[in-house]
Amino acid sequence: MALREQITENHQEFLESLRHRFLDEDRKAALERFESIGFPTKRDEEYKYTNLKEITEKAYNFFPKENHNITKEQLDQLHLGEENFDWITFVNGKLHKELSKVSIENVEFLSFNYALNDEKHRDVFDRYFNTIAYDKSAFTNLNQAYCKYGFFLKVPKNVVIEKPIHIFYISQNQEENTFYNTRNLLIVDEGAKVEIIESHHNFDSTYVLTNSVTEIFTYPNAKADWHKLQNDNDTSYLIDNTFARQEKDSLTTVNTFSFGGKLVRNNLDFIQNGSNINSFMNGITIIGKDQLVDHHTAVHHNFPNCESYQNYKGIFDGKSRGVFNGKVFVDKIAQKTNAYQQNNNVLLSEGAAIDTKPQLEIFADDVKCSHGCTVGQLNEDALFYLRARGISKKEAQALLLYAFANDAMQNIDIEPLKEKISRLLAEKLGVDIEF
């Protein structure tokens, strides 16, 4: 049975499995919207270069087995060497406190499922849940219909969380292909600060499909950084939808590092809801074989005196494919907007390909906006220069590619994360580089 038929067939059983039922009508309405539009195909402009048949024609288990045998050694290999961090570990959808380390204080932190069951947080859901993620997308509607796993975090006014928080989503001991609908809600109140690292890991040879939706609310003078470390195995599919709404004088960053996974689709939507806002989006993609990574971004400049910065780098080998579609919308009242968008790509083999489409829609006349994209191969003169100094061809290529991707990491202020990305770069490039 294909995924679409399973979605309808399993929904009533899913609703009955929940302790909370106050979202039932909203879930049913979301399922109806999904059924009316179905999964996108290559005839849809937004999925013109991304074929989802590989995902949607498989059957999945909607009710993951909870038992696992994750060891400390396995978890240690996933860490960044971040002994001073906090971390939250979800295994097969369930939050495991014994595998987590939480020292943060003066904040509201709950698993998403627990928050749904907590009457005290009903008003939070009424105010925030699905207010910026609501759209006509098949995957966001599907997530609303089935969401259960994930976390809710509210950082109160002027609270600065000094330690980054690493969120691990792990799937293990699943005998069938498994479907997760992960939901995250982050609220960063006025003057507050937080940094999140998110990573997904499939320990099985069966396929995992994760359909994730994250809503980020950043209030005046607050700062929220979200780092996505995507380095899963070849039996993993990830559809990630992240929505960020910013109020005046705030700063929000989403960094996306895509190294693993069979098919990854990142949809990133920033909504600027005040003046003097800064929005940063950076991405590094290094893939090979027959992997596909698709980045779709959108920034909505709705107020004057705001900035946005997008810098995405891609390195493609084997028969891999990349997609980049970045959009910047500037409203007519959004004067003095400064928007920068750049996508640069290197193809290392004849079988690799990238489809890139930066877009600007500007309705204001006093703005500074630029966009551009490049697709090419390594510079032969630079290669010759390095090889003439005794550096092997493989090492010379790696050094040039590392330098090419490096500027997309410049705004990472978490040193262990920066080192981890550097080492993953070196590992993907097949050389040992001292950093």
UniProtKB/TrEMBL annotation:
Domain SUF system FeS cluster assembly SufBD N-terminal intervals: 9-167
Domain SUF system FeS cluster assembly SufBD core: 175-404
One GO biological process term: iron-sulfur cluster assembly
InterPro entries linked to this entry: Fe-S_cluster_assembly_SufBD (IPR055346), SUF_FeS_clus_asmbl_SufBD_core (IPR000825), SUF_FeS_clus_asmbl_SufBD_sf (IPR037284), SUF_FeS_clus_asmbl_SufD (IPR011542), SufBD_N (IPR045595)
The family this protein is said to belong to: Belongs to the iron-sulfur cluster assembly SufBD family.
Protein's name in the database: Fe-S cluster assembly protein SufD
Native source species: Chryseobacterium endophyticum
Gene: sufD
